[in-house]
Amino acid sequence: MDFSFLSDPRYDILGAFWMTIQLTFFSAIGALVLGTVLAAMRVSPVPVLRGFATVYVNIVRNIPLTVVIIMMYFVLFSQLGLRVAERTPGVNPQGYLDTTNFRLAVIGFILYTATFVAEAIRSGINTVPPGQAEAARAIGLRFTQVLGLIILPQAFRAVIAPLASVLIALIKNTTIASAIGVAEASVIIVTGIEFNPDQITAIFLVVALGFIVLTLPTGLLLGALAKKMAVKR
Amino acid sequence: MKYRTKAGLAGVAALALLLSACGGNSGSAGGVIASGTAAAGSATSAAGSAVSSATSAASSAASSATGSAGGSATGSAAAGDSALLTKAEGGSLIVGIKYDQPGLGLKNPDGSFSGFDVEVAKYVAEKLGVPESGIEFKESKSAERENLIDRGEVDYIVATYSITDARKEKVNFAGPYFVAHQDLLVKADNADITGPDSLDGKILCSVTGSTPAQKVKDNYSATVALQEFGTYTECVEALRTGVVDAVTTDDVILAGYAAQYPGELKLVGSGFSDENYGIGLAKGDDAGTTAINDAIQAMIDDGSWAAALESTVGPSGYTIPTPPTPGS
What is the annotated signal peptide range for this record (chain B) (predicted)? Predict the structure, then answer.
């Protein structure tokens, strides 16, 4: 098999995978925060919050991710005029463009992935025996305290394994960002088809291998952590 | 449960009928159908359609057999070593085109196809002995073209397919049947973009992984910013809302978009670089390549080439160029 494309400067393979890692990193943090908030809203005693979170989760997770990402650009940015970076005329237009696309993509990934995080955490909340919440309320804790001090710490320990699946899915999902021009790992394949169709099998292999290098250790590490942290009942 | 039994019986009946239709033993088949019908009403229609499709398949096979017996001169000449010409003798071809390129290859809402590439595809097929009714069009997106040919899913591709050395490693090219020039599409009221070297500080849009935008950055405007999308339609949309300043690719493609939004978008018209559009077919099929080259030459010679361009991209104001020399 011909791997000569590896030395071609057109294929910035490390740069592309670095972009994938960055997208994953910021999206994962954002999704964890938003997902926790959504899960808290879904179990909260306030009907309006509960209703909003239910509607949000069920709508957003059922929209294909490609549509979510393209909507970020063509609706939020292009039509509604949301600006996520400052454009100074004549100064580094490429930098402005890359920042804009990156941030729009991250917002899209956060909005989408948070729904799956929320559902995972909610299932974790269900593993905590109801007696614990009742006991917490009995000693006079408010809802936020019950959730923050008693329920969520236990729930998180129960859902590390499902959250690892969400994270692995997110790593692979970041390939959608190329739809709005973020040069992440999948762009290597598109570029390869254009310039080196004769080496396409080798290019596929390299990209697939790159993703395995990212996802496999993530799964193993979080799997081990899940075992260690699980609350024995 | 009841439904499943019925469906199963209907399936058995249809299968038996199909087998018997092939074998020609109508006597025993009749009995099976009768019992099938008694058990399930729906069996009748299923079996009926099986009969009709079997009959039509048989008759079309017969007609195509007679058709190839009459055979076209081009087809039978070197059909032995050319998969394409052998297939063409059978009276049907699968041709790859674009479905989303106005003026070149477009699938219309009513299911018909239009555009210059489509006209070329039809003319070539006819020269190979296949009438328009024998052509099956198949969408071939840029990224899939080599694989479609490689796997034999299409017999040839006419889809703004630029002849390049790397692609020649995977496929054979007939043509060029058209030479396009890279150009820029901008808003109609834009006066400061006059060519590829006036793009510094501007945002230029093209399709992910394609050559045109990178070429501008490398050769003309070093500080132009490149926005990439999956399709040119998205670029044109972004141009209309003003988040990109210009779209670049081949002039004939851009002309199609300019025609969609008359008065709103315009071509800059300072064509740079040559893109030779070829017809892609299976690697090593030299007899087929020669036959297609002859067909393109014939299309140019008898005036259908210019007429096809005039009727497809002409309305966008695109000037019909002098034809290229196929096989060069």
Answer: 1-29
Residue of B nearest to A87 (CA): B201
A28-86 pLDDT, tens digit per residue, is 999 999 999 999 999 999 999 999 999 999 999 999 999 999 999 999 998 898 888 88
For residues B162 and B142, give the distance between their C-alpha atoms in angstroms, rounded to a whole number: 10
Tokens read off for A75 = 């609706």
- Chain B residue numbers touching A5 (CB-CB < 8 A): none
Asked whether the beta carbons of residue B209 and residue A190 sit closer than 8 angstroms, the reply is yes
pLDDT score for B35: 41
B49 with B56: CB under 8 angstroms? no
Calpha distance A141→B227 (Å, rounded): 53
Residues whose CB falls within 8 Å of the CB of residue A2, separated by 6 or more in sequence, listed in order: A198, A199, A202
Report which of B103, B106, B73 is spatially closest to residue B89, judged by C-alpha positions.
B73
**Do B241 and A96 make contact, defined as CB atoms within 8 angstroms?**
no
Give the integer Cα–Cα distance in Å for A8 and A21. Answer: 22
Contacts of A192 in chain B (CB under 8 A): 209
Instruction: Note whether A179 contacts B229, CB cutoff 8 Å.
Output: yes
Which positions ≥6 away from B59 have C-beta within 8 Å? none
SS (H, E, C) chain B: CHHHHHHHHHHHHHHHHHHHHHHCCHHHHHHHHHHHHHHCCHHHHHHHHHHHHHHHHHHHHHHHHHHHHHCCHHHHHCHHHCHHHHHHHCCCEEEEECCEECCCEEECCCCCEECHHHHHHHHHHHHCCCCHHHEEEEECCHHHHHHHHHCCCCCEECCCCECCHHHHCCEEEEEEEEEEEEEEEEECCCCCCCCHHHCCCCEEEEECCCHHHHHHHHHCCCCCEEEEECCHHHHHHHHHHCCCCEEEEEHHHHHHHHHHCCCCEEECCCCEEEEEEEEEEECCCHHHHHHHHHHHHHHHHCCHHHHHHHHHCHHHCCCCCCCCCCCC
Instruction: Report the 10 Å Cβ neighbour count for A182.
Output: 28
Angle at B117 between CA B116 and CA B123, to 5 degrees: 90
B17: left (phi over 0), alpha (psi -120 to 50) or beta: alpha
What's the pTM value of the predicted model, to 2 decimals?
Answer: 0.73
Backbone angles phi, psi at A108, to 5 degrees: -60, -45
Give me the total of CB pairs closer than 8 Å, taking one residue from chain A and one from chain B.
74
Which residues of A are less than 8 Å from B193 in CB distance?
Answer: none
Q: How far apart are CA B277 and CA B283, in angstroms?
A: 17
Q: Looking at A44-92, list the stretches that DSSP marks H as alpha helix, in order from N- to C-terminal side.
A: 47-60, 65-71
The answer to whether the Cβ–Cβ distance between A194 and B243 falls below 8 Å is no
Q: Does the interface predicted TM-score (ipTM) exceed 0.85?
A: no
User: Are the beta carbons of A52 and A46 closer than 8 angstroms?
Assistant: no
